[in-house]
Amino acid sequence: MAVVLLYNIVGEKLRKIRTALLRLGLSARTVSSEEYGHPIGFLAGLEGFGPSEDCGVEDFTGEMMLMSGLSSRQFSTLLDTLRASRCTVTLKAVVTESNALWNSSELYRALRTEHDTMREYIEARKKK
Contact 3/68 with Cβ under 8 angstroms? Predict the structure, then answer.
């Protein structure tokens, strides 16, 4: 089942994303901070994943969007639609076999580090 997990996205941006997903026949699930300790695979509804007994993890306030089970066409169309509506979510990822085992806080930290590293690289290249 295809689902898009949404973290800390509110207001008009949330409405735009939900509208885009609805048009593509995709479901959205807003993940609350109380759920951050559960495995991503569980939150995405993947078979073989259950809740974590220890949900005490680091909270985060940044936006994040995780996509699970989307076809290539759905993925591309969703990103194109969001770009056209000027609705950006900086941290985006696809649920994989590896990151499905992580909790939301772990994935957020990894994506944030990757994003910051890329931004620093781009800034350094501009200065050359």
Answer: yes
Helix crossing, 72-84 with 11-23: angle to 10°?
A: 140
Burial class (CB in 10 A: 0-12, 13-18, 19+), 107: buried
Sheet holding 27-31, edge to edge: 27-31, 3-7, 64-68, 92-94
Q: How many structural domains compose the chain?
A: 1
**In this predicted model, what pLDDT tens digit does every residue of 29-39 receive, in sequence order?**
999 999 999 99
Range of the domain at 84: 3-127
Q: How far lies 68's CA from each of 15, 29, 45, 99, 100, in Å?
A: 20, 11, 9, 11, 10
Q: What's the first-to-final CA gap in the chain, in angstroms?
A: 46
pLDDT class of 54 with cuts at 50, 70, 90: confident
pTM of the model: 0.91
